[in-house]
Amino acid sequence: MKTRGYQVILLVLCAHFISVTALEEEISDSAFDNFLELIPSLRKERSGSVSARFSLRKPSDPDDDVCYIVTGDPESLKECDFNTTSKTFLVIHGWTVSGLFEGWVGRLVAALYEREPSANVIVVDWLSTAQNHYIVAAHNTKMVGQNIANFINWMEKTTHLSLDHLHLIGYSLGAHVAGFAGNHVSNKIGRITGLDPAGPDFEGAHAHQRLSPDDAHFVDVLHTFNRGSLGLSIGTQQPVGHVDFYPNGGSFQPGCNLRGALEKIAKFGIFAINDAVKCEHERSVHLFIDSLLHKQEASQAYFCGSPDMFERGACLSCRKSRCSTMGYDVGGARQARSATMFTKTRASMPFRVYHYQLKIHFSSNLNCSGVEPTLTVSLHGANGDAKDLHLNINEKIAGNNTHSFLLVTEKDIGELLMIKLKWENRSKWTTSFMLKMVSSWWPGDSTLGSDMEVHKIRVKAGETQKRMVFCLKNPETPGVSQELSFVKCKESWKFHSKRRGLRRQ
């Protein structure tokens, strides 16, 4: 087994972005050293028996295990009222510290039954193996997967179960368990959904040693906690399915407190990892549950070559299956292979937001290398308003350049009617640049020309795919600190007019 992944995770968790006392550092270092000393013996450790149990839960009691289907026992199928003509879901949990099912299991079962009332929802119980040192549990995922494959093969033979109607849903380590199950069944199963597949010991591994597109006819994956930029990856960073979704870039989830999580680990040691990473790691489960419960409000994701391009709003296209619903009803990307999709979400359910690309052309006669103002936008629509939304500036704003921004709203404001844009100077502007600005505004001084001007804003709405152009409502509006209002132009998206507009004073 590899140890590098654990070293990176534990070092970063104890050291990044937090200030701890010397005593806390000493305790954390000691706990980490002791953990590393255990690794040689843990790698040799094996479970005496690796087995899974299969609980067919009921819609009326989604939290409790009242009936188990036993491999090789046809009577257990009758006792549990297994429906041979309906869809069958296998829900597979991940690593556990407590040895108990987490609360999300029952919620996912209930959501599946709400969407598919006649389905069979089977919870795979491998708690006795999962409640172990992570290294041992990770090693045993392959054997648990083989155990599940034996169960599926028997079910197919006994009940003539159509594997096209079989859907495995695995969280964390459970995602790789699902992959190993799919890899070992006699005939290929219909679908596997991986919910933030575990990263340590699987990141960068060969396709046969982790969840991969080869494990089912269709494999879709949600990545919610792969902080590669911080050297920390609880979930996998690499694409491992036919389509991989990266909500919020896959590294940060709104409403989750990373700093608090790291402080908890610094205070309580490495055994606090499970609680500390729970919010962002488990968000993948709740995003999938959301897609079951809110079919009409499911999040839409977009194919994109990189997170940076998506953050600029450059990927909001649905042409040629370049966008898809994220979660249960994944659509247009089904035929793609290794498609990476991005979306933004809210902090709570329903998670859907509405994406807009804003292309703003800045023109200026002022000779400067670029500035970094604070840009705030308000959108006014037929169904409501979204006010004071900050545009993320990825590069300095330079005159005579067009800049693209991604903007999201948490509610559907309907048809966009008006845009208000506010430009505020940042305090870190240099003295020399401010002097040039003041000089350009001084009466009678035209040596530096006019200041930055904005004439039009081109907008693309991701969810509706509508393109619109907004023109400055009042070209005579004075003052740089005032909001500039833009209303719909009659020109098309690609039409370029003469650049005459607001002079900022």
TrEMBL record:
The active site is at S172, D196, H281. CDD domains: Pancreat_lipase_like, PLAT_LPL. InterPro entries: AB_hydrolase_fold (IPR029058), Lipase (IPR013818), Lipase_LIPH (IPR016272), Lipase_N (IPR033906), Lipo_Lipase (IPR002330), PLAT/LH2_dom (IPR001024), PLAT/LH2_dom_sf (IPR036392), TAG_lipase (IPR000734). It comes from the Eukaryota. PROSITE patterns: PLAT. This is triacylglycerol lipase. One of its GO terms (cellular component) is extracellular space. The keyword Glycoprotein applies. It comes from Paramormyrops kingsleyae. Belongs to the AB hydrolase superfamily. Lipase family. Residues 354-490 form the PLAT domain. One of its GO terms (molecular function) is metal ion binding. It catalyses: a triacylglycerol + H2O = a diacylglycerol + a fatty acid + H(+). It is found in: Secreted. Keywords: Calcium, Disulfide bond, Glycoprotein, Heparin-binding, Hydrolase, Lipid degradation, Lipid metabolism, Metal-binding, Secreted, Signal. GO terms for biological process: lipid catabolic process; very-low-density lipoprotein particle remodeling.
